[in-house]
Amino acid sequence: MEKHILQSLLSKHEVGAVFFDEPMSKHTTWKVGGPADVFVVPTKIEHIQRLMNICTDHALPWHVIGRGSNLLVRDGGIRGVVIKLADNFSQISLENDFCVRAESGRSYVSCANFSMRNGLSGLEFATGIPGTVGGAVMMNAGAHGSETKDVLLHAEIVEADGTISRLSNADLHFEYRYSILKDHPRIVVSATFQLKQGDTEKMLETVRGWTKRRQTTQPLQLPSCGSVFRNPEHTHAGFLIEQSGLKGKKIGGAQISELHGNFIVNLGNARASDILQLIELAQTTILEKYGISLIPEVRIVGEDV
């Protein structure tokens, strides 16, 4: 669809703030990525419903992003509509004594901190996951032996036709770094977590220990997406990459971290193509040396230049 036609179409409906040719490098933690044709920042569920109706009626491709912490956008950018749910969609509340409801744009770390401050245990693992609640539900994010599926009660979803539905934990068919939303894209607008009573100070002490370890083992000062690959069964992707001698390998402005083999960092002037080449190098090397296929945990979208 021509840009001026799309602009006219969106101007007839209240959908939030709309931007054209928005650089995705401004919206990903890797700080790379070409422009999105249309970039929308809704503030109400009704905005999202209208966007879904427009995209469905006009066969427009659409993508949802949160804080861009698990996202690689190719240098050619994204065709269609990008919907951002972050600070614009981040309300949080106690639903009862042991439930927390958070909108999908809420930082998962912030959601965990809110829970701990209210004496609720179960989300401590999320303090090391830099994405949003919606992204965590979609990919069953986890750390420290716990996963989103362990605490999620249900999620509120906007379907492709704009209707709202509620999916239970069982409905989402969670597996390791997977939910049914990966195969049947819909938009998570909120999630409710079933937690249990905990001791705030003890929880904070545990989290401080994890934070200290991350600070010494992960390249937190440089732009990255966190872990690039899923951990294969019975081993760790970072260990395999390090054993293969790839630690510190550079292509263009990107580098496999010298601190952690499962991190690829932007040294300051990386392009998405540099990062993709390092991803492919790691995959090829590990397959040849160990017969193990590394599966990206990061979501790769968009087009090449």
From TrEMBL:
This is UDP-N-acetylenolpyruvoylglucosamine reductase. Keywords: Cell cycle, Cell division, Cell shape, Cell wall biogenesis/degradation, Cytoplasm, FAD, Flavoprotein, NADP, Oxidoreductase, Peptidoglycan synthesis. One of its GO terms (biological process) is peptidoglycan biosynthetic process. GO terms for molecular function: FAD binding; UDP-N-acetylmuramate dehydrogenase activity. Pfam families: FAD_binding_4 (PF01565), MurB_C (PF02873). Coiled coil: none annotated. Its EC number is 1.3.1.98. Cell wall formation. Its cofactor is FAD. Residues 31-198 form the FAD-binding PCMH-type domain. It catalyses: UDP-N-acetyl-alpha-D-muramate + NADP(+) = UDP-N-acetyl-3-O-(1-carboxyvinyl)-alpha-D-glucosamine + NADPH + H(+). One of its GO terms (cellular component) is cytosol. It is found in: Cytoplasm. Belongs to the MurB family. Pathway: Cell wall biogenesis; peptidoglycan biosynthesis. The active site is at R177, S227, E297. It is an enzyme of class 1 (oxidoreductase).
